[in-house]
C-alpha cells in the first residue's frame, strides 16, 4: 500500500505537469512517471524548479530495451531512458521514464544542461543501448572499445559478440578476429534418488 506522502507527491506531479504527463504509476511505495520525448526538457525543468517538487539531483540514468519485456510480447516503443531523481530539500524520489519514438534510430533529448551529473550516464546508455541523446556535448562510447560493433545490452545482441580481441605477441599489438567460441554440448541435469548409493 502506498504511503500518504507518495500519493501527495503524485498529486503535485500531476498538477505541475498537466497534459505532459503520459502515465503515473505508484507501486511498492515508488512513483514512476512517463512523458513523451518531445516534452522531456520542459518536464525535467519543471521537476527541478517547481517549489513543491525540487528534484535538484539526477542520481542515475539507464537505458532500457523492452523488446522482450518480462518474456512476453511488448506492444510499444522498444527503447527508453529511465531517470532516477532525488530531492534532498524535500526528501523524496521519483522515477521518470521516456520512450524513444523511433526503434530503428532511438533519439531522446539530453538533459545535461538541467542536471549536469547525467553526462556520463547518457554516454553509458548511448554506448550500451545505442540511444542517441540529442544535444549532448560529448556523446561517444564510454565502456566499449572504439572499434566495437553494435550495442551489447540490446536484447538482440549475440551473447558471444561479433569479434574477439587479443594481444598478439608476434605482431606486438591488439588484434581483432572472428569469434572462435565452440558451441557447448549441454548435458541434462541428473537428479539422484534420496537413498542413492546407500
TrEMBL record:
Pfam families: Complex1_30kDa. It is a peripheral membrane protein. It catalyses: a quinone + NADH + 5 H(+)(in) = a quinol + NAD(+) + 4 H(+)(out). Keywords: Cell membrane, Membrane, NAD, Quinone, Translocase, Transport, Ubiquinone. GO terms for molecular function: NADH dehydrogenase (quinone) (non-electrogenic) activity; NADH dehydrogenase (ubiquinone) activity; quinone binding. It is an enzyme of class 7 (translocase). It is found in: Cell membrane. One of its GO terms (cellular component) is plasma membrane. Residues 34-162 form the NADH:ubiquinone oxidoreductase 30kDa subunit domain. Its EC number is 7.1.1.-. The keyword Cytoplasm does not apply. InterPro entries: NADH_DH_suC, NADH_quin_OxRdtase_su_C/D-like, NADH_UbQ_OxRdtase_30kDa_su, NADH_UbQ_OxRdtase_CS. NDH-1 is composed of 14 different subunits. Subunits NuoB, C, D, E, F, and G constitute the peripheral sector of the complex. NDH-1 shuttles electrons from NADH, via FMN and iron-sulfur (Fe-S) centers, to quinones in the respiratory chain. The immediate electron acceptor for the enzyme in this species is believed to be ubiquinone. Couples the redox reaction to proton translocation (for every two electrons transferred, four hydrogen ions are translocated across the cytoplasmic membrane), and thus conserves the redox energy in a proton gradient. Belongs to the complex I 30 kDa subunit family. This is NADH-quinone oxidoreductase subunit C. The gene is nuoC.
Amino acid at each position: 500500500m502506498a504511503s500518504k506522502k507518495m500519493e501527495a507527491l503524485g498529486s503535485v506531479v500531476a498538477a505541475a505537469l498537466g497534459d505532459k504527463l503520459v502515465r503515473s504509476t505508484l507501486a511498492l511505495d515508488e512513483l514512476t512517471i512517463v512523458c513523451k520525448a518531445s516534452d522531456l526538457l520542459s518536464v525535467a525543468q519543471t521537476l527541478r524548479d517547481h517549489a513543491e517538487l525540487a528534484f535538484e539531483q539526477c542520481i542515475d540514468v539507464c537505458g532500457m530495451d523492452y523488446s522482450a519485456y518480462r518474456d512476453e510480447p511488448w506492444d510499444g516503443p522498444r527503447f527508453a531512458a529511465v531517470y532516477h531523481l532525488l530531492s534532498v530539500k524535500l526528501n523524496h524520489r521519483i522515477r521518470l521514464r521516456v520512450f524513444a519514438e523511433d526503434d530503428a534510430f532511438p533519439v531522446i533529448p539530453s538533459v545535461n544542461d538541467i542536471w549536469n551529473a547525467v553526462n556520463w550516464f547518457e554516454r553509458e546508455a548511448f554506448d550500451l543501448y545505442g540511444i542517441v541523446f540529442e544535444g549532448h556535448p560529448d556523446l561517444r562510447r564510454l565502456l566499449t572499445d572504439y572499434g566495437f560493433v553494435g550495442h551489447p545490452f540490446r536484447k538482440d545482441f549475440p551473447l558471444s559478440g561479433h569479434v574477439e580481441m587479443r594481444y598478439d605477441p608476434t605482431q606486438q599489438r591488439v588484434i581483432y578476429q572472428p569469434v572462435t567460441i565452440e558451441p557447448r554440448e549441454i548435458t541434462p541435469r541428473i537428479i539422484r534418488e534420496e537413498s542413492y548409493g546407500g
